[in-house]
Amino acid sequence: MTGTPPDGPADGSGATTSGSGTPVPVDVSRDRRARIRWAVLLAGPVIGISHFMVVYLVAEAGCTGSGPGLRLFGPPVPDIVTLASTAVAALACVVSATWAHRRWQSSGAGEGQGARGDDGERPADGIGTPDADAPIAFAGFLLASVFLVMVLFVGVPAPLLTC
Amino acid sequence: MTVAGGTGPDAGTPTVREPETNEALDRLWADPPGLWGRLTAVQNDAIGTRLMLTGFFFVLLGGSVDSLVMRLQLAVPENTLVSAELYNELFTNHGSVTMFLVILPIFEGFAILLLPLLLGTREMPFPRLGAFSYWTFLGGGLVYYSATLFQLVPNAGWFAYVPLSGPEFSPDLAIDFWVLGLGVAEVGAIAAGLEIIIGVLKMRAPGMTLTRMPLFAWAMLITAFMILFAFTPLIIGSLLLELDRGFGTQFFNPGQGGSSLLWQHLFWIFGHPEVYIQFLPAAGIVSMIVPVFTRHRTVGYTWLVAAMVAIGFLSFALWAHHMFATGLPPIVLSFFAAASMVIAIPAGVQVFAWVATIWHGRPRWDTPFLFVVGFLLVFVVGGITGVMVAAVPFDLQAHDSYFVVGHLHYVLIGGVAFPIFAGVYYWFPKFTGKLLDERLGKLNFWLLFVGVNVAFFPMHIVGLMGMPRRIYTYDDSLGWGMYNLISTIGVLIIVPGIGVFIWNVVRSYRKGEPAGPNPWGADTLEWAVPSPPAEHGWSVLPIVRSRHPLWDQDVLDRGDERLEHFVHGLSTWPLRWRAAVIVGTADGQPQEVFRVAGPAIWPMCAAAGVVLIFVSELAKLRWGIAVGALIVVAAAIRWNWPEEPPMTVEEEDEFEREHGVPVNGAGSVVVASWGMGLAILFVSIAFGALLLSYFYLRLENPVWPPAGIAEPALTWASVAAGLVVASGVAAQVSLRRVRDADQRGFVTGLASAIGLLGAGAALQLWDVAALDFGGTDHAYGSIFYTLTGFLAVVATGTLIMGAMALYWAVKGHYTVRRHATVANIVRFWVAAILIWVTGFGVLHLGPHLT
Question: Which of B795, B802, B845, B794 is nearest to B826 (CA)?
Answer without folding.
Answer: B802
